[in-house]
Each structure stands twice: as C-alpha cells, then as structure tokens.
Amino acid sequence: MPEVEVRELQVFLALAEELHFGRAAERLGLTTSRVSQSVRALERKLGGGRLFDRTSRTVALTDLGAALHRDLVPALANLEDVVLRARERGDGPGPVRVGLLNAASGGAVLNAAVRRYESRYPGGTVRLVGTPFTDRLGPLRRGEVELTVTRLPLERPEIELGPLLSEGDPRVVLVAADHPLAGRSAVSVEDLADYEVRRSPDDPPEVAEASCPSHTPSGRPIMAAEVQVGDVSELLLLVARGRLVHPTTLPFAEQFRHPGLAVVPITDLPPSSSALCWLRGVRHPGRDAFLEAVREELQAKRLP
Predict the structure, then answer these.
(1) 3-class DSSP state of 177
(2) What is the pLDDT of residues 120-162, one digit of tens each?
C-alpha cells in the first residue's frame, strides 16, 4: 500500500472544513490544482474511493470522507502535540510575554520566576508588557501576551486563573494631600459616597466592584468622576488636583508615591489578591513552562 503523506492529510482536512477548493488552497498557501492533485493522490492511496462529491458549484464529503475526517481530527491533534513536545525538549519553550498594569501586583514573585525561567532555558526570555489602563485584558484576548496579571475576583468564561502572586493586600484610597480625608487615620466605604471616584467602564465589573462598590452598605451611590483617565500618571495628577479620589491597593499606592497625595486605609473592604491568568483553550509551551517556574518560586517561598 502506498505511503500516505502528512501533507496530503492536511490538505484533506482543510478541504473538508472549507468545502471550497479556492479557500482551502488560500488557507494552505497552495494552488487549487495542487489541492485537487493531493486529494486525488490520497484517494488512490486509500483504495480509490471518493472522499468528496464534486460538482462545478459544490463540494461535499462522501460517507468515506466523513468517516476519515471524524477519525483524522483527533489523530492529527495528537501528532501535533507530540511534535510540539519534541520541539520543547530540543529548543526549549521559547519566549513568553506577560502583561501587567503595574509592577506592584506580585512583582517580587514575577521577578524571581523570570530569573528562574531564563536560567533554566538558555535563549528563553520573559518580556513584561505594560497593559493599557482602560483595557487591561485586551492584550491577552488579542494574543499580544500569553499571560496577564489581574486583580481578583475575576470571573470570565474565556479566562483561566492561575497561581496567586500576592494575597492580603490592604485596600486604601488615594486622595490629594489637602483633601478632607487626607488627615484621617482610616475611612469606610460610606465616606467614599461623599466624593467622586475613578471608575473605568472597561474594567471587568467584578474587579471594579471589589475595588470600589457602586453603592455603600447603607445604599448610597458612589459617584464615578466624569473624566477620562489614559494612564497612571494622568490618574495621579487628577487625584493630586482634587478632581477625584482613587480606591486602590497599598502596593499600588506605595509604588506610585507622589508628594501631592495622601494614602488612607479603607477599613471595611476585604484585602486584595492578584494572580496570573490566560486564555482558556489556548496552548503555549512557553506560558506553561513559565507558570511552572512561578509555582516553584511560590513553593520555595513557603518552605521554612
């Protein structure tokens, strides 16, 4: 029996999914005649039965073609996994891009994990990418990064949560140095209803609500400031000018200390945690290897 080539099977799969010779050829970077030749060659090697019913206008799978498609999809997927694993062992998992809004979210663990990963895999690199202030999950969804640091809780069906980078980060509010709240030793959520806060419509609702509820425990609304905030620097200047107050976490406030700002603890919001997250169902060897380095680093920190 003549040997079937993997490329012929790939051409068959493309045509079975597109059911159009032109689209299948474009997808594979081949000519339509080459696609047709490959299908005929595969049919001969499989005993001469037709895999497709072809007319001048339509392409459809025959029963034989449908059965081959059903068996071939998982088989080729397994083969691709085998090849990927072999490549990982030979070349290493490659570069990884990690998105983060600011380095205050689990930065110590991230930095240690980067060193661990890059020392383990020669040529492997981790690039920390700043994410837009108004679109923190956008780069992950668009495939511009493989991982993103996020504040919790985050409940998105397309996103999988991984190891915690920080836990128990106290909640605080940033206010202008001459703001009425600046001299207080602490404030409550009720106090925030007297002022406008920064609230981004692009933030996941559960993240925004955990940072600053839309209403106080007594039911008073907490008003969002009607200002556009493009980045952290703009936010800090708006707070320093008294245009708004900004509920956040203590690590953020400590990283972005500003002489025109005061940091006041919020007593009745639970502490915050941060974690790495990634798109569910997307395979990436470098991402998985880096996650393993993060977990190892976290385990090492827990050991006495």
Answers:
(1) coil
(2) 887 788 998 888 877 889 899 999 999 999 999 999 999 999 9
Q: How far apart are CA 102 and CA 133, in angstroms?
A: 9
CA distance 271 to 273: 7
Extract the runs of DSSP E, i.e. beta strands, from the chain. Answer: 52-54, 59-61, 96-100, 126-130, 147-151, 159-169, 171-176, 246-249, 261-265, 272-279
What residue spans define the domains of the chain? 6-91, 96-165+273-302, 171-270
The CATH class for the domain spanning 171-270 reads: alpha beta
Q: CATH topology of 6-91 equal to that of 171-270?
A: no
CB-based contact 165:106 (threshold 8 Å): yes
Triad 253, 254, 260: Cα angle to 5°: 65
Nearest Cα to 90, choosing from 119, 126, 114, 121? 121
Is this prediction's pTM over 0.85? no
197-256 pLDDT, tens per residue? 988 777 888 988 999 999 999 999 999 888 878 788 888 999 999 999 999 999 999 888
